[in-house]
Request: fold
Amino acid sequence: MSVTAEPKTVRAYVDLQAAQRPDAVYLIAAESGMRMTFAELQRASRRLAHYLSGMGIRPGEKVALLMHNGYQACRLFIGAMYGGYCVTPINLLAQSAQLEYVLEHCDARIVFAAPDQLERLKAALANVARQILVVECNVDSQEFIAGPETAENLPAVGEEDDALMMYTSGTTGKPKGVVLTHRAVISGGQFVSAAHQLGPGDRVMASLPLYHINAQIVTATAPLVHGGSLVIPHRFSASHFWELVAQYRCTWINVVPTIISYLLNGTDPLESGLDIGGVRFCRSASAPLAPSQLRAFEEKFKIGVIETMGLTETAAPCFTNPLDPARRKIGSPGQAFGNQARIVDPLGNTLPPHATGEIMVRGLNVMKGYYKDAEETARACTADGWLHTGDLGHLDEDGFVFVTGRIKELIIKGGENIAPREIDEALLKHPAVLEAAAAGMPDQHYGQEIMACVVLKPGHLCSEAELQEFCLPALGKYKTPKIIRFLGELPKGPSGKVQRLKLPG
Reply:
């Protein structure tokens, strides 16, 4: 299905909403209650553009952000793209070496940073050869850069211009800078808005970090497209999540499976008397959601779950389940929406339904390429626009995709391919298990054996032998983990997605 709209850049959408609905609220800061209208967003975006121009930052150059979620972070994120600059949010979880690499590699000459990030930022900059201006920003402040609010002398912005650069997690090497044009960013926002039938009356609880593609496109760009609004807390809090949803009358929530796990084990808003009846659906993305958790969430909170899938390289969304509950397929992130999808074998041949291979997608939302890395770009993108996702799976006869794992994470035991997700789902059915992730470990006989790491629910106890016994009926002896490790938490990226390659061996 294709989705089209007249505006093709972030600036065009800001100007459109400011002209048609100037006093409508775009953003609410959850903790302070501060509100930003579309007209205020437009004025702030123009001031930022003039400020950056006055500092000698040229159109198209990178503007880096090192900030927690908040009023200022969102204003800077949208404002930089509006002004014709390429915004580069930096992962706050990045270690020192990774932070130094990103700052050096991205070529930004200015970085906006929260006060609590200044010390580590300055330490990283000491090892960066290029001079970079640091601008301190309080995420909760309404004060903003002084400057003209006019559109005069702003550089032109086109749909093929760079708008956003996000760095991959770098679990298998140095992070790669994914460059997304205005066309890709806007297409991502359009796909979300159209797939979920969102409009001006919709408001999303935006708990995911704004330095991740999911939050940037789904909860910041999509409301800009459909004229809705977002509530942005500093960070996700299981104890306050439903209170904020009820207080600000959110109509949809955007989460990842990790958040679903914590909400399932938290307080029940219905028992607390909170009014969450206005929530139309829960959107889950960034990692596969176990069917058992999906069903438990719907039963406990009486809110339907729409499982989706996206990548940084596709400006977030590329698959989604339908809004109609009768058409959803549990265990699948849905059908291609706004782009095309196919399954290929190692030689690139398209496979028939139900045959497993690599998932490939093509559409307006696909990245321009990896920054300063033509070789990796050529590996990822074909000449006719198809993107290698690196994910394994199959399509059914209705075009629903079923993901079995990452190619690099596949467990190969005795020559048999084993999808880690199958192990995860078996372990997650145990009443004591909060989170689970399986991975391969070296073995002299089989090449690889199966190892799983689990996090237990608070107050629950369980032994390795008990879990192995529990897995036998579902997995059989061959696929039951040989070793199960108990951890306080699983290694995760900024979106909450488990990083299997970082699990202890």
In short: The longest helix spans residues 38-54. The chain has a mean pLDDT of 93. The radius of gyration is 22 Å.
